[in-house]
Protein: Protein NipSnap homolog 3A isoform X2
Amino acid sequence: MRNVCSSFATGPRQYDGTVYEFRTYYLKPSKMNEFLENTKKNIHLRTAHSELVGYWSVEFGGRMNKVFHIWKYDNFAHRTQVRKALAKDKEWQEQYLIPNLALIDIQESEITYLVPWCKLEKPPKEGIYELATFQMKPGGPALWGDSFKRAVHAHINRGYTKLVGVFHAEYGVLNRVHVLWWNESADSRAAGRHQSHEDPRVVAAVRESVNFLESQQNMLLIPMSFSPLK
Structure:
């Protein structure tokens, strides 16, 4: 039996039930360091239950004192099993969850799939990450998927930046796509962006894609020492 999965654009259908949960925590300004220290000390209690893809603090883009992390699950049933196991894990509850809840203002969760034409890539070395979020017009990937794919490939084919993954929202705000990029530094990211703006092939691909775009935003992410993606 095939897994229930997400289709993106008019290309090959992705018969893969793997889901990626995006979690964003908005922390109390005076408690950021305390939260990160406790997380560093006890994250192993959480990763004993499921795979952590990456964990970052947000340097630029939106509200300050914010952390962003991605968790991978085989399917929705796997996530349910993990959440049930965590609810029974007293060590996790007492050493991490209960102390940290008092340090958090807001928690957000979004469920995504990797798009079928993309696999999760690991950067060659440590660097910084950019999460670019695109709110597309209603109509779904069948309407804007091909042009979006061309715009992404125009950037990576010219070597202006390195693609880590492209994720399509399944639960949360619909018609939303997240692109996770890697660069050696914020300055190298800026240099690549300036060069891409002068490349007619990139400009043409982006110009086509923006016909289906409603809004976009981005965040500069700094990987934590315990993050698998550095």
The radius of gyration is 18 Å. Strands lie at 19-27, 51-60, 66-73, 104-114, 128-136, 162-171, 176-183, 213-223. The chain has six helices and eight strands.
